[in-house]
Design goal:
This protein has about 625 residues and is of the alpha+beta class. It is built from 21 helices and 25 strands. α5 packs antiparallel against α6. It is globular and about 80 Å long.
C-alpha cells in the first residue's frame, strides 16, 4: 500500500522543530546554509535549543534577556552560511544582540558567480548518558532562514553515527567542507572549531526510517565543481518550481514524447516569459493565488526582487517500477541545473533524492497530485508578460549594485575615544572602485545606530575616500554588522540589506559590555539566573516584577522556587550552569571601577560555590 502522500499540504513541519533533540540527547553542534536570512529568525534557533522544554517560548522570544542567554550559550556551537548581501535589514531590538552572534553568521559567495543557494541543516546530538551512539539530523529544505509564511518543502532525516563510512553522504560532506573557503578571501574568518569532527561523524552516519515509503536516499550538490546534477530520465516527470527558464525546461522535457508525460507547476508570471514552443511540452498548472503568500527567491539572473508565489522545489520521476522524489533548493532554471559554459553563472544548490518501489511510494498522481494538493492548483492561462515600468528598471539597477557592494571586503576600524568607540569604514586590499549609477544614493550605518538614513557611502565605494567615519557608539553597541540602503532618487525605489565587515582594533571587553547593557540592575541579574537555572528548579524564580533585592535574597533557601536548590543540583550534575554564573559575575564588573550590580549577599553565597567550579562542565 502506498505511503501517505508526501506533498499533502496538511503535513506541517515547524522550522524550530528541527532543533529538538531526541529523547535522552542534547544539542551539540550544527552547520546551516541559506540563501537569505533575517536576524530575528536566526535568533529563534538558539532560544529554541536552550529553552526546548519551555511552555512560554513565545514570551521568551520577546525577552531580550532570554535571547541574550540563549545566544551566549550557543556561541561557538553553530555556524550559519548565507549568500553575501542577502541578510535582511535588521530591526533595532535585535541589533545589539547580534554582536554576540557575529561569528556564527558567515557570508559566502558561489564559485561560479551565481547565487549561493542551498538550504540545509546538519545537526549533531550527543547522548546524555554513556554507551549511546552520537545521533545526527540532516534537513534539506526549500526554505530560507527568514520569517516568511511560505508553502515550502523539507526532508528531515535522523540517523546514528556508526563505524563504517556511508558513501551516500559524500556530496553533503564536500559542501560543508567547502563552506569556510567560500567567504571573502580578504576578510575570511576562521572555520568553526567543531567542523572537522562533525564532518567525520557525518561521513559515518546511517539514516533511519526513510519517509514516503522510500528505500534509498542520495544527495547531490551543484556549483562546486564541473559536474551538474539534473533529474534522471524516466517514463513520467512532474516538476514543482517557482522559477523557471526556457533552456532548463527544454532540457528537462527531452525524451518525453507526450505533454501528459511532463507536468509542471510554476508561477504564472514566470511561465509567461517562456516561449510557447517550450511550454507545449508540458501539462501546466499554477498554485491558486488564494492558497497563500510567499517570499523572495533568486531568478535565473540572480537579480530578482522580493516576489510572491510558489516557493517549493521538487522533481518527481516515474521510472519503471520505481519512483524518484528529488527535492531541495534547485529551481528549474539555467543557473541551477545547466552546466556553466561561456561565462554563464551557476548557483550552488543542494538536492536530496528519495527512491523506492511505486508499490510503497505510489505514483506521481499519488504523491504530488493527491486530492489535498490538487485542490490548491488551477490550470495555467497564458497572458502577455507585464512591461517593465521605471520602478522595475530602477530595482534591477539597485540589485546589480547590491551584488557589487556585497562583494567588497569591508573593514570596520575601532578607535577608543573618551565618549565611546569611533567607527571608520574602509575597503580592505586593492579593490577596484564601484561606479555609482546616476541618481542613486548609497547610505550606510552600524545597525545599532538608530539613524535610518545613515551616512553617505558613495565616497568610499567610488574610491574617492580611503575611509569614512560612520559613527561613535558605546562599546556595547559595536558590532560588525552594517545596514546598507540604496535609493533611486527619480522613482523613490529603495532596497535595504545588512553587510558584515571585519572588526579591526576592537577594544577588549565588548561581549562583557553587551551583557552589562542588558543586565543593568539587580532585577535583571536575577531574571537572568532564573532562565539560566530554570530547567533545574520548579518553575520561575520571579514572583513579581517589583521584587526588590531583599525579597530575592530572602528567598534563596525557600521552598520549590528557591535559587539555592537548583544551584546545588547544577553542582551535583556537573553541568555548565555554575561555570556560566561564574563568568557572568566576572563580566558584570565595571572594568574601570570594579563595581558590580551583583548584590553582596549573593556574592557571599557564591563564595561557597566558586571554589568548586572551574571550566564548564567540571568541578574542582
Amino acid at each position: 500500500m502506498p505511503a501517505e502522500p508526501a506533498f499533502h499540504p496538511e503535513n506541517r513541519q515547524l522550522y524550530t522543530a528541527l532543533m529538538r533533540a531526541p529523547d535522552q540527547y542534547q544539542f551539540d553542534n550544527a552547520v546551516a546554509t541559506t540563501y537569505s536570512l533575517d536576524f530575528e529568525t536566526a535568533l529563534t534557533i538558539p532560544i529554541t535549543i536552550v529553552f526546548r522544554d519551555a511552555e512560554n517560548r513565545d514570551e521568551m522570544l520577546r525577552s531580550p534577556l532570554a535571547l541574550l542567554q540563549s545566544v551566549e550559550r550557543m556561541a561557538g556551537r553553530m555556524a550559519i552560511y548565507c549568500d553575501r548581501g542577502r541578510i535582511k535589514e535588521a530591526r533595532p531590538n535585535a541589533a545589539r544582540l547580534m554582536a554576540l552572534y557575529e561569528k556564527t553568521i558567515i557570508e559566502v559567495s558561489a564559485p561560479g558567480s551565481g547565487a549561493f543557494h542551498p538550504k540545509l541543516w546538519c545537526i549533531r546530538f550527543k547522548p546524555e548518558h554513556g554507551g549511546q551512539p552520537t545521533r545526527m539530523r540532516l534537513a534539506v529544505l526549500s526554505r530560507n532562514l527568514t520569517n516568511d509564511k511560505c508553502w515550502d518543502l523539507a526532508l528531515c532525516l535522523d540517523g546514528k553515527v556508526q563505524e563504517h563510512t556511508n558513501d551516500a553522504n559524500e556530496p553533503i560532506v564536500q559542501l560543508l567542507r567547502a563552506l569556510p573557503g567560500l567567504a571573502n578571501s580578504a576578510t575570511r574568518p576562521a572555520a568553526p572549531k567543531f567542523l572537522l569532527s562533525l564532518l567525520r561523524d557525518l561521513e559515518r552516519c546511517t539514516w533511519e526510517d526513510l519517509p514516503a515509503g522510500a528505500t534509498r536516499v542520495s544527495f547531490a550538490v551543484n556549483g562546486l565543481n564541473s559536474s551538474t546534477w539534473s533529474p534522471q530520465k524516466g517514463d513520467r516527470l512532474a516538476i514543482l518550481s517557482p522559477f523557471v527558464s526556457g533552456d532548463a525546461l527544454a532540457r528537462l522535457s527531452q525524451g518525453y514524447d507526450q505533454p501528459s508525460a511532463c507536468q509542471l507547476v510554476a508561477r504564472a508570471e514566470e511561465l509567461d516569459r517562456i516561449k510557447p514552443d517550450v511550454r507545449k511540452h508540458f501539462e501546466i498548472q499554477t498554485l491558486d493565488e488564494r492558497a497563500t503568500r510567499y517570499e523572495e527567491e533568486d531568478r535565473d539572473d540572480s537579480e530578482a526582487a522580493d516576489l510572491e508565489g510558489l516557493h517549493a522545489k521538487a522533481y518527481i520521476v516515474e521510472r519503471g517500477s520505481r519512483l524518484h522524489i528529488h527535492l531541495g533548493s534547485a529551481n528549474a532554471t539555467t543557473a541551477a541545473l545547466v552546466p556553466a559554459r561561456g561565462g554563464r553563472t551557476q548557483n550552488v544548490e543542494v538536492m536530496a533524492t528519495l527512491d523506492g518501489p511505486k508499490s510503497r511510494m505510489g505514483s506521481i498522481a499519488d504523491t504530488l497530485f493527491s486530492e489535498g494538493f490538487h485542490r490548491l492548483l488551477t490550470p495555467y492561462v497564458p497572458s502577455a508578460p507585464a512591461e517593465q515600468d521605471a520602478a522595475a528598471v530602477a530595482e534591477k539597477v539597485l540589485e546589480k549594485l547590491r551584488i557589487k557592494i556585497a562583494a567588497l571586503p569591508l573593514d570596520l576600524h575601532c578607535t577608543q575615544l573618551a565618549e565611546g568607540v569611533g567607527l571608520e569604514l574602509a575597503v580592505a586590499g586593492n579593490t577596484a572602485p564601484i561606479e555609482i549609477p546616476p541618481g542613486v544614493k548609497c547610505f550606510i550605518r552600524p545597525i545599532t545606530v538608530a539613524n535610518e538614513q545613515g551616512y553617505d557611502a558613495a565616497p568610499l565605494l567610488s574610491g574617492t575616500a580611503p575611509r569614512i567615519a560612520v559613527s561613535t557608539v558605546p562599546l556595547s553597541d559595536v558590532t560588525r554588522w552594517l545596514g546598507m540602503r540604496l535609493r533611486d532618487a527619480e522613482t523613490g525605489v529603495e532596497i535595504a540589506f545588512t553587510l558584515g565587515a571585519r572588526l579591526v582594533g576592537l577594544p577588549e571587553g565588548r561581549d562583557a559590555a553587551v551583557l552589562r547593557a542588558h543586565i543593568a540592575n539587580v532585577e535583571n541579574f536575577f531574571r537572568y539566573l532564573s532562565m539560566l537555572l530554570g530547567s533545574l528548579g520548579e518553575g520561575s524564580f520571579l514572583e513579581s516584577d517589583k521584587a526588590g533585592e531583599g525579597q530575592w535574597l530572602r528567598r534563596l533557601g525557600q521552598g520549590g522556587n528557591a535559587l539555592l536548590e537548583p544551584m546545588v543540583r547544577a553542582l551535583a550534575l556537573a553541568g555548565d550552569e555554575l561555570a556560566e554564573i561564574d563568568q557572568l559575575i566576572e563580566h558584570l564588573k565595571d572594568p574601570e571601577t570594579g563595581k558590580s550590580i551583583v548584590p553582596e549577599d549573593f556574592l557571599k553565597l557564591w563564595a561557597s560555590f566558586a571554589p568548586l567550579v572551574t571550566t564548564k562542565g567540571t568541578r574542582k
